[in-house]
Design goal:
With 430 residues, the chain is α+β, with helices and mostly antiparallel strands. It has 15 helices and 16 strands. It has 2 domains: 258 residues, Bira Bifunctional Protein, Domain 2 (BirA Bifunctional Protein, domain 2); 86 residues, Anticodon-binding domain (Rossmann fold, 3-Layer(aba) Sandwich). It is elongated, with a radius of gyration of 28 Å. It binds adenosine monophosphate (AMP). Adenosine monophosphate binds next to strand 6, strand 10, strand 11 and helix 11.
Length: 430
């Protein structure tokens, strides 16, 4: 198999039975989000590069280093091509759609969720891929509809806690911070820059670069030697203006009232520029160094920065790859085996097998069929290997009489049943 083509670095195939866990997660998500009145939105994977430059921010790692972006072929020689990007995240696309379709004209707050692939050219490692999947939700709307209310923040956080609980994920931590707003952030950034001036030369090269381009990200540095320096830097909490301070206090108060535990983390900043006020991450110990299962926060100015009307909002993105990994390390999801392996025996029996399989499937029975050329022994062995619970033997006699031999593959017991009784019998035995 020389020169076989492989999946692109950082991408991977999701194979059964793992996809069963993905489906389990997505079904739980759809089910739970519905009772919080969230509706699905699907935006394109391909967007105008400017969308991410203006929202996520040109100086962020995501946009400056990790985007898959290229100039699309121009239609005529005189024209320039449009710069396109594979979306690195989905909030920007949702807010673009909100603006493009004037969704603020719809009553109340818009509550959306999405499930889909995102692309970042990061260094691949366990839990970090170049094509990965996010499950996210956004609440957005005019202030008059209540979009700035701290209760919206709590509703999202409580929904997330319920989701993780429902999935049986134990031992998660919610880390919470407020990153301020357009009023207080510039004052804090100035204080941070001033403080960094004296110490940055002793920090890692990334911090030296961030101190220039995006000083908030210095707080995110994980290099052990830099930690004592970072601990002494000014803290955003001390710079929050009165309204941000009150907002954050109210978020914590309601969160405590609904019994969602959290830890305050004054260094939590997130890697995207659009965040304001509440910022959060859920982490889990089972994930190792890439321990963030999900992250999110408010983005009260995002709509305006994309040319839309004022539309405060808040959202999160769960790393579905990591969520599935956490599940696999804790409980795991059992794969439902096929109920019946239909074994046609002899020439002409495929026709009968197809008709019978169709009827059984219509009644909700999971069926695999063999082929009329298989000997009985081979059919039974195949059925066992595939994990089918029953084998149904279908030879000429059975086809003529309408009575079938149904073999329970775990007990070996065999009974004769009429076509109409097969489904009930299979369902009755778990
Ligand atoms: P972000 O969009 O950066 O806020 O990330 C939200 C969540 O997406 C993170 O907490 C991760 O769980 C997940 N995530 C981000 N980047 C990757 C990646 N390259 N591979 C897998 N999951 C990722």
């Amino acid at each position: 198999m020389a020169n076989s083509i492989r999946a692109v670095r950082g991408t991977r195939d999701l194979l059964p039975p793992e996809t069963e866990t993905w489906n389990f997660v997505e079904a739980a998500v759809r089910d739970l989000f519905r009772v919080y009145n969230f509706q699905e939105i699907r935006t394109p994977v391909l967007e105008d590069l400017q969308l991410f430059q203006r929202s996520v921010g040109e100086e962020t790692d995501i946009v400056s280093k990790e985007m898959f972006a290229w100039e699309d072929r121009a239609r005529a020689q005189s024209e320039k091509g449009q710069w396109l990007a594979l979306r690195p995240e989905n909030t920007a696309g949702v807010v673009r759609a909100y603006i493009e379709h004037k969704l603020w004209e719809r009553p109340g707050l818009q509550r959306f969720y999405y499930i889909g692939p995102q692309f970042r050219r990061e260094r691949p490692q366990k839990g970090r891929y170049r094509q990965f999947y996010q499950i996210g939700a956004e609440v957005i709307g005019p202030s008059a509809a209540g979009s700035e209310s701290p209760s919206v923040d709590v509703e999202l956080l409580e929904m997330l806690a319920s989701l993780l609980d429902r999935l049986g994920i134990q031992g998660w931590n919610l880390n919470l911070n407020s990153v301020g707003c357009a009023n207080d952030r510039p004052i804090y950034l100035q204080a941070l820059r001033d403080a960094l001036k004296d110490v940055v030369h002793a920090m890692c090269v990334d911090c030296q670069r961030r101190a220039e381009t995006n000083p908030l990200r210095v707080l995110d540095c994980k290099v052990p030697e830099d930690q004592p320096v970072i601990e002494k830097l000014p803290r955003m909490n001390d710079y929050l203006d009165a309204s941000c301070r009150a907002h954050f206090a109210e978020v914590q108060k309601i969160l405590s009232a609904v019994s969602v535990p959290f830890t305050l983390d004054h260094r939590l900043v997130r890697g995207l520029d659009y965040y304001t006020r509440t910022a959060f991450e859920f982490t889990h110990g089972a994930l190792g160094s890439q321990n963030a299962i999900l992250g999110g926060g408010r983005y009260d100015g995002l709509s305006e920065s994309l040319g839309g009307p004022p539309a405060p909002g808040i959202g999160f993105a769960i790393g579905e790859d990591r969520l599935v990994m956490t599940l696999q390390e804790s409980a795991g999801v059992s794969v439902r085996p096929a109920d019946v392996y239909v074994a046609p025996l002899g020439a002409g029996m495929n026709v009968h097998a197809a008709k019978l399989a169709r009827e059984l499937r219509r009644q909700g029975v999971a069926v695999i069929t063999g082929d009329e050329t298989f000997k009985l022994k081979k059919s039974l062995e195949t059925a066992s290997k595939l994990g089918a619970r029953f084998a149904l033997i279908l030879g000429e006699n059975e086809a003529n009489s309408g009575q079938f031999a149904l073999k329970n593959l775990s007990t070996g017991e065999q009974v004769t049943v009429g076509a109409n009784a097969i489904a009930a019998r299979v369902k009755a035995i778990a």
